[in-house]
């Protein structure tokens, strides 16, 4: 359940309003301004020849949206999601959906230096954060969307 969103003046210094979600057992976060909306999971139409992390296309109120499975994108050995939520994000004039297992909350998350991992070099993970004594892996949604759509 999503709790009240703090106003910018209530945020601790170096903290941003972050949408928290789970993929597998890991806690992830994305800047709330990068996510246009959250919709319940619905099975997209599979594209022949598409990479495994691309689940396919879905029609969102007359707009075609490319749907990427974040779990498969980060771990190619993972089975594709069949439930959860889809985070809808924009890249220019196009939309992409990002499948996550569970959307949790919107909180202020302080960020730290970015870890040196393969996912960071690809531009998907922007860093680590902390919220209520939990480590949050911060996802750069615009970079992920551009990576998926290009």
Q: What keywords describe this structure?
A:
150 residues; mainly beta; OB fold (Dihydrolipoamide Acetyltransferase, E2P); five-stranded mixed beta sheet; 3 helices; 10 strands; 12% helix; globular; disordered N terminus
Number of strands: 10
User: Main sheet, how many strands, which sense, barrel?
Assistant: 5 strands, mixed, barrel
**Radius of gyration, in angstroms, nearest whole number:** 15 Å
In angstroms, what separates the terminal alpha carbons? 34 Å
Strand order of the largest sheet: 1-2-10-9-8
Helical content (DSSP H or I, runs of 4+): 10-25%
| Number of helical elements | 3
- Under CATH, the topology can be stated as OB fold (Dihydrolipoamide Acetyltransferase, E2P)
Low-pLDDT runs? 1-13
Question: Total domains, how many?
Answer: 1
CATH class: Mainly Beta
Q: Indicate the structural class.
A: mainly beta
Shape by Cα distribution: globular
**Beta-strand residue percentage:** over 45%
Helix-strand pattern: EEEEEHEEEHEEH
The second-level CATH architecture is Beta Barrel
Looking at this structure, what is the CATH superfamily? CheA-289, Domain 4
- pLDDT average, as an integer? 83
């Amino acid at each position: 359940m999503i709790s009240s969103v703090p106003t910018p003046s209530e945020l601790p210094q170096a903290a941003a309003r972050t949408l928290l979600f789970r993929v597998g057992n890991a806690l992830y976060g994305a800047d709330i301004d990068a996510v246009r909306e959250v919709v319940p999971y619905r099975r997209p139409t599979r594209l022949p020849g598409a990479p495994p992390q691309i689940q396919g296309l879905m029609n969102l109120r007359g707009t075609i949206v490319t749907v990427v499975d974040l779990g498969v994108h980060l771990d190619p050995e993972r089975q594709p999601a069949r439930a959860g939520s889809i985070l809808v994000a924009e890249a220019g004039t196009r939309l992409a959906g990002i499948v996550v297992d569970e959307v949790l909350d919107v909180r202020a998350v302080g960020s730290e230096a970015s870890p040196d991992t393969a996912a960071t070099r690809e531009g998907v993970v922007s860093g680590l954060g902390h919220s209520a004594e939990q480590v949050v892996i911060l996802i750069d949604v615009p970079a992920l969307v551009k990576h998926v759509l290009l």
